[in-house]
Amino acid sequence: MTQTSSIKISRVQQARDEVGATDIRYPAASWFVGIWLLLLFAVLAVDHFGEWRQQTEQKSTSFRSLAVLEDVPAIIRDVSEDPFSFPTWIAANRRLLERIQQTEEDIEEQGTMASWMRPWAQRILLMVGVGNEKAYPAPQSWLFYRIDVDSVSGPGFLDEYQLQKQATVAAEWETPLQPNPVPAIIDFHQQLAARGIKLLLVPVPVKPEILPDKFTSRFSAGHLVRNPSYLLFLDKLQEADVWVADVAEWIMEYQLTHQQPAFLQTDTHWTPSAMQWVARQLSAELSNNLVLKSDGRIATEKKKFPVSNQGDITSMLDLPATWNPYPAETAITERVLLPDGSLWHASADAEVLVLGDSFSNIYSLDAMGWGESAGLVEHLSHLLQRPVDRIVRNDQGAFITRQLLAKELARGRDRLAEKKVVVYQFATRELAFGDWRPIPFQLKDLPPSNFLSIAPGRRMKVRGTVREISPVPRPGSVPYRDHVVSVHLVDIADGDKSDSFSQAVVFLRSMTDNIWTSAARIRPGDELELTVSNWSDVADELDGLNRSELNELELQLQEPLWGEWQEK
Length: 568
What we know:
Layout: H1 11-20, H2 26-55, H3 72-81, H4 86-110, H5 112-127, E1 135-138, E2 142-145, H6 146-153, H7 160-167, H8 181-193, E3 198-204, H9 207-210, H10 212-215, H11 230-239, E4 243-244, H12 247-258, H13 272-289, E5 301-309, H14 312-316, E6 329-337, E7 352-356, H15 358-361, H16 376-384, E8 389-392, H17 400-410, E9 421-427, H18 429-433, E10 459-469, E11 483-494, E12 500-512, E13 515-516, E14 527-534, H19 539-542, E15 546-547, H20 553-556, E16 561-565
Parallel strand pairs: 3-4, 3-9, 7-8, 7-9, 11-15, 12-16
Antiparallel strand pairs: 1-2, 5-6, 10-11, 10-14, 11-12, 12-13, 14-16
Helix pairs in contact: 3-4, 12-13, 13-16
Protein backbone atom coordinates (compact mmCIF):
# COMPACT_ATOMS: atom_id res chain seq x y z
CA MET A 1 0.00 0.00 0.00
CA THR A 2 1.45 3.30 -1.07
CA GLN A 3 1.01 6.39 1.16
CA THR A 4 0.99 9.85 -0.33
CA SER A 5 1.69 12.86 1.83
CA SER A 6 0.85 16.47 1.10
CA ILE A 7 2.49 19.58 2.46
CA LYS A 8 0.05 22.29 3.51
CA ILE A 9 0.96 25.79 2.45
CA SER A 10 -0.61 29.07 3.54
CA ARG A 11 -2.92 31.06 1.29
CA VAL A 12 -0.39 33.87 1.23
CA GLN A 13 2.35 31.54 -0.02
CA GLN A 14 -0.05 30.04 -2.57
CA ALA A 15 -0.91 33.50 -3.88
CA ARG A 16 2.77 34.40 -4.16
CA ASP A 17 3.50 31.21 -6.09
CA GLU A 18 0.63 31.82 -8.50
CA VAL A 19 1.50 35.47 -9.06
CA GLY A 20 5.12 34.60 -9.51
CA ALA A 21 4.17 32.10 -12.22
CA THR A 22 1.83 34.48 -14.04
CA ASP A 23 2.95 35.16 -17.56
CA ILE A 24 1.84 38.47 -19.04
CA ARG A 25 2.60 38.97 -22.68
CA TYR A 26 4.65 41.98 -23.65
CA PRO A 27 1.87 43.77 -25.63
CA ALA A 28 -0.60 43.39 -22.71
CA ALA A 29 1.98 44.58 -20.19
CA SER A 30 2.77 47.55 -22.39
CA TRP A 31 -0.91 48.49 -22.62
CA PHE A 32 -1.39 48.25 -18.84
CA VAL A 33 1.68 50.37 -18.10
CA GLY A 34 0.74 52.86 -20.80
CA ILE A 35 -2.81 53.31 -19.51
CA TRP A 36 -1.56 53.73 -15.95
CA LEU A 37 0.98 56.35 -17.00
CA LEU A 38 -1.64 58.10 -19.14
CA LEU A 39 -4.05 58.35 -16.19
CA LEU A 40 -1.25 59.56 -13.92
CA PHE A 41 -0.08 62.30 -16.26
CA ALA A 42 -3.64 63.21 -17.30
CA VAL A 43 -4.44 64.20 -13.72
CA LEU A 44 -1.19 66.18 -13.58
CA ALA A 45 -1.95 67.91 -16.89
CA VAL A 46 -5.55 68.74 -15.97
CA ASP A 47 -4.50 70.16 -12.60
CA HIS A 48 -1.79 72.35 -14.13
CA PHE A 49 -4.07 73.52 -16.93
CA GLY A 50 -6.77 74.42 -14.39
CA GLU A 51 -4.26 76.28 -12.26
CA TRP A 52 -2.87 78.09 -15.30
CA ARG A 53 -6.38 79.31 -16.15
CA GLN A 54 -6.85 80.56 -12.58
CA GLN A 55 -3.62 82.50 -12.80
CA THR A 56 -4.92 84.54 -15.71
CA GLU A 57 -7.11 86.28 -13.12
CA GLN A 58 -4.44 86.54 -10.41
CA LYS A 59 -1.15 88.27 -9.91
CA SER A 60 0.75 85.22 -8.69
CA THR A 61 2.44 83.12 -11.38
CA SER A 62 3.77 80.25 -9.27
CA PHE A 63 2.45 76.69 -9.54
CA ARG A 64 1.48 74.70 -6.45
CA SER A 65 3.75 71.83 -7.49
CA LEU A 66 6.75 74.19 -7.50
CA ALA A 67 5.87 75.99 -4.27
CA VAL A 68 8.33 73.84 -2.33
CA LEU A 69 11.16 75.65 -4.14
CA GLU A 70 10.03 79.11 -2.98
CA ASP A 71 11.52 78.76 0.49
CA VAL A 72 14.83 77.34 -0.73
CA PRO A 73 16.61 80.72 -1.25
CA ALA A 74 15.62 81.88 2.25
CA ILE A 75 16.69 78.54 3.75
CA ILE A 76 20.07 78.74 1.99
CA ARG A 77 20.52 82.32 3.20
CA ASP A 78 19.74 81.37 6.82
CA VAL A 79 22.11 78.40 6.74
CA SER A 80 24.94 80.36 5.09
CA GLU A 81 24.84 82.92 7.93
CA ASP A 82 25.83 80.25 10.44
CA PRO A 83 26.75 77.07 8.53
CA PHE A 84 28.40 75.30 11.49
CA SER A 85 25.45 75.65 13.87
CA PHE A 86 23.49 72.43 14.42
CA PRO A 87 20.29 74.30 15.52
CA THR A 88 20.45 76.31 12.29
CA TRP A 89 20.42 73.15 10.20
CA ILE A 90 17.60 71.69 12.32
CA ALA A 91 15.52 74.86 11.83
CA ALA A 92 16.21 74.82 8.08
CA ASN A 93 15.21 71.17 7.82
CA ARG A 94 11.98 71.79 9.71
CA ARG A 95 11.12 74.73 7.49
CA LEU A 96 11.71 72.63 4.38
CA LEU A 97 9.62 69.74 5.73
CA GLU A 98 6.80 72.13 6.57
CA ARG A 99 6.85 73.54 3.05
CA ILE A 100 6.85 70.04 1.52
CA GLN A 101 3.88 69.05 3.66
CA GLN A 102 2.01 72.26 2.82
CA THR A 103 2.70 71.74 -0.89
CA GLU A 104 1.38 68.16 -0.75
CA GLU A 105 -1.78 69.30 1.02
CA ASP A 106 -2.32 72.14 -1.46
CA ILE A 107 -2.04 69.77 -4.42
CA GLU A 108 -4.31 67.20 -2.80
CA GLU A 109 -7.01 69.64 -1.70
CA GLN A 110 -6.90 72.31 -4.40
CA GLY A 111 -6.24 70.22 -7.49
CA THR A 112 -8.73 70.63 -10.33
CA MET A 113 -9.57 66.92 -10.52
CA ALA A 114 -9.97 66.55 -6.75
CA SER A 115 -12.07 69.71 -6.47
CA TRP A 116 -14.40 68.45 -9.21
CA MET A 117 -14.70 64.83 -8.08
CA ARG A 118 -14.89 65.31 -4.30
CA PRO A 119 -18.42 66.83 -4.11
CA TRP A 120 -19.94 64.16 -6.36
CA ALA A 121 -18.21 61.36 -4.49
CA GLN A 122 -19.52 62.85 -1.24
CA ARG A 123 -23.04 62.94 -2.68
CA ILE A 124 -22.88 59.20 -3.38
CA LEU A 125 -21.51 58.49 0.09
CA LEU A 126 -24.17 60.62 1.76
CA MET A 127 -26.95 58.85 -0.14
CA VAL A 128 -25.85 55.57 1.49
CA GLY A 129 -25.57 57.20 4.93
CA VAL A 130 -21.84 57.95 5.07
CA GLY A 131 -20.28 61.32 5.88
CA ASN A 132 -16.59 62.16 5.66
CA GLU A 133 -13.60 62.77 7.91
CA LYS A 134 -15.24 65.94 9.27
CA ALA A 135 -18.98 65.26 9.53
CA TYR A 136 -21.34 62.45 10.54
CA PRO A 137 -24.90 62.29 9.15
CA ALA A 138 -27.54 61.14 11.65
CA PRO A 139 -31.26 60.25 11.45
CA GLN A 140 -33.87 62.95 10.77
CA SER A 141 -31.34 65.21 8.98
CA TRP A 142 -29.18 65.85 12.03
CA LEU A 143 -25.46 66.44 11.48
CA PHE A 144 -22.60 66.04 13.95
CA TYR A 145 -19.02 67.30 13.91
CA ARG A 146 -16.69 64.32 14.06
CA ILE A 147 -14.24 65.90 16.52
CA ASP A 148 -17.15 66.58 18.88
CA VAL A 149 -18.19 62.93 18.73
CA ASP A 150 -14.62 61.75 19.23
CA SER A 151 -14.12 64.04 22.23
CA VAL A 152 -17.09 62.41 23.98
CA SER A 153 -16.81 58.79 22.87
CA GLY A 154 -13.01 58.54 22.99
CA PRO A 155 -10.75 57.67 25.93
CA GLY A 156 -10.49 59.89 28.98
CA PHE A 157 -8.51 63.03 28.17
CA LEU A 158 -6.65 62.73 31.52
CA ASP A 159 -5.73 59.10 30.91
CA GLU A 160 -1.91 58.85 31.04
CA TYR A 161 -1.62 56.95 27.78
CA GLN A 162 -3.92 59.41 26.02
CA LEU A 163 -1.90 62.38 27.30
CA GLN A 164 1.31 60.85 25.95
CA LYS A 165 -0.37 60.10 22.63
CA GLN A 166 -1.70 63.64 22.20
CA ALA A 167 1.71 65.11 23.07
CA THR A 168 3.30 63.27 20.14
CA VAL A 169 0.81 63.99 17.36
CA ALA A 170 2.51 67.22 16.24
CA ALA A 171 4.60 67.19 13.08
CA GLU A 172 8.36 67.64 13.38
CA TRP A 173 8.18 71.36 12.55
CA GLU A 174 5.31 72.09 14.95
CA THR A 175 5.45 72.87 18.65
CA PRO A 176 4.23 69.76 20.50
CA LEU A 177 0.86 70.03 22.20
CA GLN A 178 0.57 70.17 25.95
CA PRO A 179 -2.67 68.20 26.26
CA ASN A 180 -3.31 68.28 30.03
CA PRO A 181 -5.73 71.15 30.73
CA VAL A 182 -5.47 71.01 34.53
CA PRO A 183 -2.00 72.60 35.05
CA ALA A 184 -2.67 75.37 32.50
CA ILE A 185 -6.03 76.31 34.02
CA ILE A 186 -4.69 76.27 37.58
CA ASP A 187 -1.71 78.39 36.49
CA PHE A 188 -4.07 80.87 34.79
CA HIS A 189 -6.22 80.96 37.94
CA GLN A 190 -3.19 81.66 40.15
CA GLN A 191 -1.79 84.41 37.90
CA LEU A 192 -5.14 86.18 37.91
CA ALA A 193 -5.53 85.71 41.67
CA ALA A 194 -2.14 87.40 42.17
CA ARG A 195 -3.74 90.52 40.67
CA GLY A 196 -6.93 90.14 42.70
CA ILE A 197 -8.95 88.85 39.72
CA LYS A 198 -11.26 85.84 39.83
CA LEU A 199 -11.42 83.23 37.07
CA LEU A 200 -14.79 81.75 36.11
CA LEU A 201 -14.38 78.71 33.87
CA VAL A 202 -17.25 78.14 31.41
CA PRO A 203 -16.79 74.81 29.53
CA VAL A 204 -19.64 74.67 27.01
CA PRO A 205 -20.68 71.09 26.13
CA VAL A 206 -20.70 70.00 22.50
CA LYS A 207 -23.75 68.62 20.70
CA PRO A 208 -23.09 64.86 21.22
CA GLU A 209 -22.92 65.40 25.00
CA ILE A 210 -26.36 66.97 25.15
CA LEU A 211 -28.13 65.22 22.26
CA PRO A 212 -26.66 61.70 21.98
CA ASP A 213 -30.15 60.40 21.17
CA LYS A 214 -30.10 62.39 17.91
CA PHE A 215 -26.89 60.62 16.91
CA THR A 216 -27.67 57.03 17.88
CA SER A 217 -30.63 55.03 19.16
CA ARG A 218 -28.44 53.61 21.94
CA PHE A 219 -29.35 56.64 24.06
CA SER A 220 -32.70 58.04 25.07
CA ALA A 221 -33.74 61.69 25.19
CA GLY A 222 -32.48 63.56 28.23
CA HIS A 223 -29.31 61.48 28.55
CA LEU A 224 -26.10 63.44 29.26
CA VAL A 225 -22.89 61.85 27.96
CA ARG A 226 -19.49 63.06 29.12
CA ASN A 227 -15.89 62.13 28.49
CA PRO A 228 -14.70 59.56 31.08
CA SER A 229 -12.21 62.08 32.53
CA TYR A 230 -14.61 65.00 32.94
CA LEU A 231 -15.60 64.38 36.57
CA LEU A 232 -11.95 63.83 37.53
CA PHE A 233 -11.16 67.12 35.77
CA LEU A 234 -13.76 68.92 37.89
CA ASP A 235 -12.42 67.32 41.08
CA LYS A 236 -8.87 68.50 40.37
CA LEU A 237 -10.03 72.06 39.69
CA GLN A 238 -12.18 72.07 42.81
CA GLU A 239 -9.13 71.03 44.88
CA ALA A 240 -7.32 74.08 43.47
CA ASP A 241 -10.31 76.34 44.30
CA VAL A 242 -11.05 77.11 40.63
CA TRP A 243 -14.55 78.46 40.00
CA VAL A 244 -16.32 76.34 37.35
CA ALA A 245 -19.79 76.84 35.88
CA ASP A 246 -21.77 73.65 35.26
CA VAL A 247 -23.02 74.66 31.83
CA ALA A 248 -24.03 71.12 30.82
CA GLU A 249 -26.53 70.90 33.68
CA TRP A 250 -27.89 74.34 32.79
CA ILE A 251 -28.46 73.24 29.20
CA MET A 252 -30.11 69.97 30.26
CA GLU A 253 -32.40 72.03 32.48
CA TYR A 254 -33.17 74.27 29.50
CA GLN A 255 -34.18 71.29 27.34
CA LEU A 256 -36.35 69.87 30.11
CA THR A 257 -38.06 73.23 30.64
CA HIS A 258 -38.55 74.18 26.99
CA GLN A 259 -38.95 70.68 25.52
CA GLN A 260 -36.77 71.54 22.54
CA PRO A 261 -33.17 70.81 21.51
CA ALA A 262 -30.50 73.22 22.67
CA PHE A 263 -28.45 72.86 19.46
CA LEU A 264 -28.99 73.74 15.83
CA GLN A 265 -29.74 70.72 13.64
CA THR A 266 -26.92 71.09 11.09
CA ASP A 267 -24.54 73.33 13.02
CA THR A 268 -22.03 72.73 15.81
CA HIS A 269 -23.46 75.52 17.99
CA TRP A 270 -26.34 76.12 20.36
CA THR A 271 -29.66 77.79 19.54
CA PRO A 272 -30.19 81.47 20.43
CA SER A 273 -32.65 80.66 23.21
CA ALA A 274 -30.35 78.05 24.80
CA MET A 275 -27.48 80.54 24.65
CA GLN A 276 -29.63 83.20 26.33
CA TRP A 277 -30.62 80.71 29.04
CA VAL A 278 -26.93 80.10 29.80
CA ALA A 279 -26.29 83.87 29.80
CA ARG A 280 -28.99 84.25 32.49
CA GLN A 281 -27.37 81.56 34.64
CA LEU A 282 -23.96 83.18 34.19
CA SER A 283 -25.34 86.58 35.12
CA ALA A 284 -26.82 85.14 38.33
CA GLU A 285 -23.55 83.34 39.09
CA LEU A 286 -21.55 86.56 38.73
CA SER A 287 -24.04 88.71 40.61
CA ASN A 288 -24.17 86.27 43.54
CA ASN A 289 -20.40 86.05 43.91
CA LEU A 290 -19.08 89.49 42.96
CA VAL A 291 -19.65 93.08 43.93
CA LEU A 292 -19.49 95.21 40.79
CA LYS A 293 -19.41 98.99 40.64
CA SER A 294 -22.85 100.53 40.88
CA ASP A 295 -21.83 103.40 38.61
CA GLY A 296 -20.94 101.03 35.77
CA ARG A 297 -24.51 100.37 34.73
CA ILE A 298 -25.51 100.88 31.10
CA ALA A 299 -28.92 100.90 29.51
CA THR A 300 -29.48 98.33 26.76
CA GLU A 301 -32.50 96.96 24.98
CA LYS A 302 -33.22 93.84 22.91
CA LYS A 303 -34.82 93.56 19.50
CA LYS A 304 -35.88 90.25 17.92
CA PHE A 305 -34.35 89.51 14.56
CA PRO A 306 -34.95 86.28 12.55
CA VAL A 307 -32.00 84.87 10.60
CA SER A 308 -31.72 81.88 8.21
CA ASN A 309 -28.48 80.13 7.41
CA GLN A 310 -26.88 76.82 6.43
CA GLY A 311 -25.23 75.03 9.34
CA ASP A 312 -21.45 74.92 9.42
CA ILE A 313 -21.40 71.09 9.36
CA THR A 314 -23.31 71.17 6.06
CA SER A 315 -20.42 73.12 4.55
CA MET A 316 -17.94 70.52 5.80
CA LEU A 317 -19.73 67.85 3.75
CA ASP A 318 -18.49 69.62 0.60
CA LEU A 319 -21.56 68.72 -1.46
CA PRO A 320 -22.24 69.79 -5.06
CA ALA A 321 -23.62 73.30 -5.36
CA THR A 322 -26.67 71.94 -7.18
CA TRP A 323 -27.57 69.30 -4.58
CA ASN A 324 -28.02 69.73 -0.86
CA PRO A 325 -30.53 67.68 1.15
CA TYR A 326 -30.14 69.91 4.21
CA PRO A 327 -32.32 73.04 4.12
CA ALA A 328 -31.34 76.29 5.74
CA GLU A 329 -32.34 76.70 9.39
CA THR A 330 -34.15 79.72 10.79
CA ALA A 331 -33.45 81.05 14.27
CA ILE A 332 -34.88 83.99 16.19
CA THR A 333 -32.04 86.05 17.61
CA GLU A 334 -32.34 89.02 19.95
CA ARG A 335 -29.98 91.86 19.17
CA VAL A 336 -28.67 93.88 22.09
CA LEU A 337 -28.72 97.60 21.29
CA LEU A 338 -27.53 100.71 23.06
CA PRO A 339 -30.04 103.48 23.86
CA ASP A 340 -29.17 105.35 20.64
CA GLY A 341 -30.08 102.25 18.60
CA SER A 342 -26.47 101.34 17.76
CA LEU A 343 -25.13 97.82 18.14
CA TRP A 344 -23.62 96.83 21.46
CA HIS A 345 -19.82 97.07 21.69
CA ALA A 346 -17.19 95.91 24.17
CA SER A 347 -15.63 98.29 26.73
CA ALA A 348 -11.93 97.83 27.49
CA ASP A 349 -12.32 99.43 30.93
CA ALA A 350 -15.13 97.09 32.06
CA GLU A 351 -14.76 95.00 35.22
CA VAL A 352 -15.76 91.78 33.42
CA LEU A 353 -13.60 90.30 30.65
CA VAL A 354 -14.88 87.38 28.57
CA LEU A 355 -12.48 85.10 26.71
CA GLY A 356 -14.53 83.04 24.27
CA ASP A 357 -14.59 80.93 21.14
CA SER A 358 -17.21 80.44 18.43
CA PHE A 359 -19.91 79.66 21.02
CA SER A 360 -19.53 83.30 22.10
CA ASN A 361 -19.23 84.48 18.49
CA ILE A 362 -22.03 82.55 16.80
CA TYR A 363 -24.68 85.30 17.06
CA SER A 364 -22.20 88.18 17.43
CA LEU A 365 -20.08 87.98 14.32
CA ASP A 366 -22.05 88.75 11.18
CA ALA A 367 -19.54 86.87 9.02
CA MET A 368 -20.64 83.59 10.65
CA GLY A 369 -24.02 84.03 9.01
CA TRP A 370 -26.20 84.02 12.15
CA GLY A 371 -26.61 87.75 12.77
CA GLU A 372 -24.74 90.19 14.95
CA SER A 373 -24.83 91.82 18.38
CA ALA A 374 -26.92 88.93 19.73
CA GLY A 375 -24.32 86.61 21.24
CA LEU A 376 -23.38 85.39 24.68
CA VAL A 377 -21.31 88.42 25.67
CA GLU A 378 -23.94 90.92 24.53
CA HIS A 379 -26.68 89.17 26.49
CA LEU A 380 -24.46 88.84 29.55
CA SER A 381 -23.85 92.61 29.42
CA HIS A 382 -27.59 93.24 28.99
CA LEU A 383 -28.48 91.05 31.98
CA LEU A 384 -25.79 92.57 34.18
CA GLN A 385 -26.69 96.04 32.84
CA ARG A 386 -22.99 96.76 32.84
CA PRO A 387 -20.28 97.10 30.19
CA VAL A 388 -18.27 93.97 29.42
CA ASP A 389 -14.90 93.55 27.72
CA ARG A 390 -14.24 90.59 25.43
CA ILE A 391 -11.51 88.76 23.54
CA VAL A 392 -13.13 86.17 21.30
CA ARG A 393 -11.84 84.04 18.45
CA ASN A 394 -13.30 81.12 16.54
CA ASP A 395 -11.49 77.81 17.08
CA GLN A 396 -8.68 76.70 19.42
CA GLY A 397 -10.34 78.01 22.56
CA ALA A 398 -7.83 76.16 24.73
CA PHE A 399 -4.99 78.40 23.66
CA ILE A 400 -5.78 81.28 21.31
CA THR A 401 -7.74 83.64 23.58
CA ARG A 402 -5.25 83.16 26.42
CA GLN A 403 -2.47 83.91 23.95
CA LEU A 404 -4.27 87.02 22.67
CA LEU A 405 -4.60 88.32 26.22
CA ALA A 406 -0.91 87.64 26.86
CA LYS A 407 0.01 89.50 23.64
CA GLU A 408 -2.00 92.52 24.72
CA LEU A 409 -0.01 92.63 27.97
CA ALA A 410 3.29 92.05 26.14
CA ARG A 411 2.51 95.02 23.88
CA GLY A 412 2.10 97.25 26.92
CA ARG A 413 -1.70 97.30 26.92
CA ASP A 414 -3.06 96.17 30.28
CA ARG A 415 -6.36 94.49 29.41
CA LEU A 416 -6.53 93.23 33.00
CA ALA A 417 -6.58 96.71 34.53
CA GLU A 418 -9.73 97.29 36.62
CA LYS A 419 -10.90 93.72 36.00
CA LYS A 420 -12.63 91.78 38.77
CA VAL A 421 -13.34 88.59 36.87
CA VAL A 422 -12.24 86.81 33.70
CA VAL A 423 -14.96 84.57 32.25
CA TYR A 424 -13.12 81.89 30.26
CA GLN A 425 -15.49 80.14 27.84
CA PHE A 426 -14.40 77.26 25.61
CA ALA A 427 -15.98 74.17 24.01
CA THR A 428 -15.41 70.93 25.93
CA ARG A 429 -13.85 69.33 22.83
CA GLU A 430 -10.79 71.43 23.70
CA LEU A 431 -10.27 69.34 26.85
CA ALA A 432 -9.57 66.31 24.65
CA PHE A 433 -7.83 67.89 21.67
CA GLY A 434 -6.72 71.40 22.65
CA ASP A 435 -3.27 72.85 23.29
CA TRP A 436 -3.03 73.70 26.99
CA ARG A 437 0.39 75.30 27.17
CA PRO A 438 0.76 77.48 30.28
CA ILE A 439 1.23 81.11 29.26
CA PRO A 440 2.86 83.89 31.32
CA PHE A 441 0.68 87.01 31.58
CA GLN A 442 3.23 89.78 32.10
CA LEU A 443 2.77 93.47 31.38
CA LYS A 444 5.74 94.70 29.35
CA ASP A 445 6.98 97.73 27.49
CA LEU A 446 7.25 96.87 23.80
CA PRO A 447 10.76 97.76 22.52
CA PRO A 448 11.18 100.10 19.53
CA SER A 449 10.30 98.46 16.25
CA ASN A 450 11.16 98.97 12.61
CA PHE A 451 7.78 97.61 11.55
CA LEU A 452 5.43 99.91 9.68
CA SER A 453 2.84 101.52 11.94
CA ILE A 454 -0.20 103.55 10.89
CA ALA A 455 -2.35 105.71 13.14
CA PRO A 456 -6.04 104.75 13.50
CA GLY A 457 -8.21 106.30 10.81
CA ARG A 458 -5.36 106.63 8.29
CA ARG A 459 -4.85 104.64 5.08
CA MET A 460 -1.69 104.19 3.04
CA LYS A 461 -0.84 102.56 -0.29
CA VAL A 462 2.28 100.40 -0.09
CA ARG A 463 4.06 97.76 -2.10
CA GLY A 464 6.22 95.00 -0.74
CA THR A 465 7.40 91.41 -1.08
CA VAL A 466 5.86 88.46 0.75
CA ARG A 467 8.43 86.70 2.93
CA GLU A 468 6.06 84.39 4.81
CA ILE A 469 2.34 83.65 4.85
CA SER A 470 0.38 81.65 7.40
CA PRO A 471 -1.62 78.55 6.36
CA VAL A 472 -5.10 78.91 4.88
CA PRO A 473 -7.61 76.06 5.41
CA ARG A 474 -9.45 74.49 2.50
CA PRO A 475 -13.08 75.68 2.30
CA GLY A 476 -15.30 73.17 4.06
CA SER A 477 -12.43 71.61 6.03
CA VAL A 478 -13.14 73.69 9.14
CA PRO A 479 -16.47 74.70 10.73
CA TYR A 480 -15.95 78.40 9.94
CA ARG A 481 -16.75 80.06 6.64
CA ASP A 482 -14.38 83.01 6.88
CA HIS A 483 -10.66 83.23 7.47
CA VAL A 484 -7.99 85.88 7.90
CA VAL A 485 -4.41 85.13 6.85
CA SER A 486 -1.25 86.74 8.27
CA VAL A 487 1.40 87.97 5.85
CA HIS A 488 4.97 89.04 6.66
CA LEU A 489 5.74 91.77 4.16
CA VAL A 490 9.33 93.00 3.59
CA ASP A 491 11.05 95.62 1.40
CA ILE A 492 8.07 97.91 1.80
CA ALA A 493 7.84 101.18 -0.07
CA ASP A 494 5.20 103.89 0.06
CA GLY A 495 3.11 103.61 -3.09
CA ASP A 496 2.87 107.38 -3.54
CA LYS A 497 6.27 108.52 -2.21
CA SER A 498 9.85 107.35 -2.15
CA ASP A 499 9.73 106.56 1.59
CA SER A 500 10.73 103.00 2.45
CA PHE A 501 10.04 100.88 5.50
CA SER A 502 11.57 97.65 6.61
CA GLN A 503 8.67 95.27 7.13
CA ALA A 504 5.12 94.79 8.38
CA VAL A 505 2.65 92.14 9.52
CA VAL A 506 -0.53 92.46 7.45
CA PHE A 507 -3.85 90.67 7.88
CA LEU A 508 -5.83 89.88 4.72
CA ARG A 509 -9.25 88.30 4.17
CA SER A 510 -8.42 84.86 2.73
CA MET A 511 -11.82 83.14 2.79
CA THR A 512 -15.35 84.53 2.62
CA ASP A 513 -18.43 82.34 2.95
CA ASN A 514 -16.35 79.21 2.24
CA ILE A 515 -14.84 80.68 -0.93
CA TRP A 516 -11.15 81.49 -1.15
CA THR A 517 -10.19 85.03 -1.97
CA SER A 518 -7.11 85.72 -4.07
CA ALA A 519 -5.15 86.26 -0.84
CA ALA A 520 -5.42 82.52 -0.14
CA ARG A 521 -3.16 81.85 -3.13
CA ILE A 522 -0.40 84.29 -2.22
CA ARG A 523 3.03 82.66 -2.13
CA PRO A 524 6.37 83.77 -0.62
CA GLY A 525 8.18 85.94 -3.14
CA ASP A 526 5.02 87.50 -4.59
CA GLU A 527 5.04 91.29 -4.81
CA LEU A 528 1.85 92.93 -3.54
CA GLU A 529 0.33 96.37 -3.76
CA LEU A 530 -1.90 96.98 -0.75
CA THR A 531 -3.91 99.68 0.87
CA VAL A 532 -3.18 99.26 4.57
CA SER A 533 -4.73 100.72 7.69
CA ASN A 534 -4.61 100.23 11.44
CA TRP A 535 -6.04 96.85 12.49
CA SER A 536 -8.06 98.54 15.23
CA ASP A 537 -10.18 100.21 12.52
CA VAL A 538 -11.72 96.85 11.62
CA ALA A 539 -11.03 94.77 14.75
CA ASP A 540 -14.58 95.03 16.10
CA GLU A 541 -15.89 93.47 12.90
CA LEU A 542 -13.12 90.98 12.07
CA ASP A 543 -11.16 90.12 15.20
CA GLY A 544 -13.42 87.17 16.01
CA LEU A 545 -12.82 85.47 12.65
CA ASN A 546 -10.75 82.32 12.42
CA ARG A 547 -7.18 83.51 11.83
CA SER A 548 -3.84 81.78 11.31
CA GLU A 549 -0.69 83.29 12.76
CA LEU A 550 2.90 83.47 11.57
CA ASN A 551 5.35 81.11 13.23
CA GLU A 552 7.78 83.55 14.88
CA LEU A 553 6.72 84.99 18.23
CA GLU A 554 8.41 88.29 17.37
CA LEU A 555 6.09 88.66 14.38
CA GLN A 556 3.04 87.75 16.45
CA LEU A 557 3.83 90.54 18.91
CA GLN A 558 4.02 93.25 16.24
CA GLU A 559 1.13 95.64 15.75
CA PRO A 560 -0.69 94.21 12.71
CA LEU A 561 -2.09 96.18 9.80
CA TRP A 562 -5.25 95.48 7.84
CA GLY A 563 -4.65 95.12 4.12
CA GLU A 564 -6.85 95.46 1.07
CA TRP A 565 -5.17 93.87 -1.92
CA GLN A 566 -4.97 96.00 -5.04
CA GLU A 567 -4.58 93.21 -7.61
CA LYS A 568 -3.13 93.96 -11.01
